[in-house]
Amino acid sequence: MVAIGFLYYWALKNVPALSEPTHFITFTTLMLIHALLHWAGPIVAARRQWLIPYFIMQGALIFAIVYMAPGGGFIYGLYWAMGGEAAMILVDLRAASITIGAYMALSAVNFGLTLGWDQLPSLLAYIAPMTFFILVYALMFQRQAKARRQTQSLLADLEAAHRQLAEYAVQVESLTLGRERERMARELHDTLAQGLAGLILQLEAVDTHLARSQTDRAQKIVAQAMSRARSTLADARRAIDDLREEQAIVDVESAVRAEAERFTSATGIHCNLDLEITSHIPDFVAEHILKIVSEGLTNIARHARAKNVDLQIDAYDGRLYLEIKDDGSGFDTNQIGKSGRYGLIGMRERSRLAGGTLEIQSKPNEGTTLRLRLPL
User: Fold this and answer.
1) pTM here?
2) For 324, what's the count of Cα atoms within 13 Å in the CB-facing half-sphere?
């Protein structure tokens, strides 16, 4: 705007014809419109559809201004200013070069019409280096503008990625908390709940034997109950100390036989074992298997009113098959997940964590069968 003001003053001072009122008012109006359009340049740059009309209108205004002040000398600088503006506003280098070339050609025509075509060679000697300078400027500016746009695009992508990572972090935290709650529920159920349920069954058996004056039998079950209570307390302490620490099971077959023996001793229900374990069972899988067996037998003792239980485990060729079947009262499998059926949910979660599937088949008065299949 300062440069336009200087050119306006220089033209008025050096072109006598502009002192005439009509020429003065027209010239002033054209310069004012030209300046206002420059001032609106950022708005035009934001609306690409206005660019062509904008540059055409500015070219027409400059042509008229120079025509009115042919001896203004520096007034031709309005063309160079518009060439620089085209280089800055137009994103495409080809479009900027065409626009700059058009302004230089228009300035040559303007010069020839106002000062005579015989003076044109001297102008061309002046225009050629100026055009080259503006084109080089435009090229450098376009490269910087492109680099800036790429940087802004990368920053936008980084901000979007940061927001996405923040959202993922919230989701991961939510999932982690959910998994930990599930794990805590399983640990509490499979340690305290199962242990206490087993103690209740053993104490009920003791009460029955004492009522029948079977003292020796009652004392034997009391000793087993004391051992189970200590084991439950140790399991609970381990779970409290570190819920993330997995319990290693060294010998699945021995652990299952011991669990079945405690079950039969406490309930009097015969447990028929069929164990064929020839493949190595990883410790984390072994823990889930033993917990499922313990929960299955506990459920039979508490709910099934069964007389016989068949427990089968086959582990060979990298796969494991587990089946627990009773001849008890059975239940409606649609009730799984409702009150009193959380142990079955825990078994399904353990089977999923071990990489297998658990099938539960049962109908009222037809017994219950649990089938676990998983790869080792």
Assistant:
1) 0.42
2) 28
CA pair distance 150, 172, nearest whole angstrom: 32
> Whole-angstrom Cα distance, residue 195 to residue 193?
5
Other C-beta atoms closer than 10 Å to the C-beta of 213 total 8
Whole-angstrom Cα distance, residue 84 to residue 231? 87
* Residue closest to 323 by CA, chosen among 349, 356, 346, 363: 356
Helices (H), the chain: 2-14, 21-39, 41-46, 51-68, 77-89, 93-115, 120-188, 194-211, 215-241, 252-267, 283-299, 342-353
- Distance of alpha carbon 291 from alpha carbon 208, whole angstroms: 28
Q: Is the dihedral of CA 150, 151, 156, 161 positive or negative?
A: positive
Q: Which of 237, 234, 371 is nearest to 310 (CA)?
A: 371
**pLDDT (tens place) for every residue of the chain, 376 residues total:** 888 888 888 888 888 888 888 889 998 999 899 888 888 877 877 777 888 888 888 888 888 888 888 655 567 778 777 877 787 777 677 787 788 888 878 877 877 777 677 766 766 666 667 667 767 776 777 778 788 888 999 998 988 888 888 788 778 767 766 776 776 776 666 667 677 777 788 888 888 888 888 888 888 888 888 877 877 776 677 666 655 554 555 689 999 998 899 888 888 899 999 999 988 888 888 888 988 998 899 889 888 889 999 999 999 888 999 999 999 998 888 877 665 556 788 888 888 888 899 999 998 988 999 999 999 8
CATH fold group of domain 269-376: Heat Shock Protein 90 (3.30.565)
- 357-362 and 308-316 strand pairing: unpaired
Query: CB–CB of 347/295 below 8 Å?
Result: yes
The domain spans of the chain are 2-115, 269-376
Q: Which residue has the tokens 């003001």?
A: 5
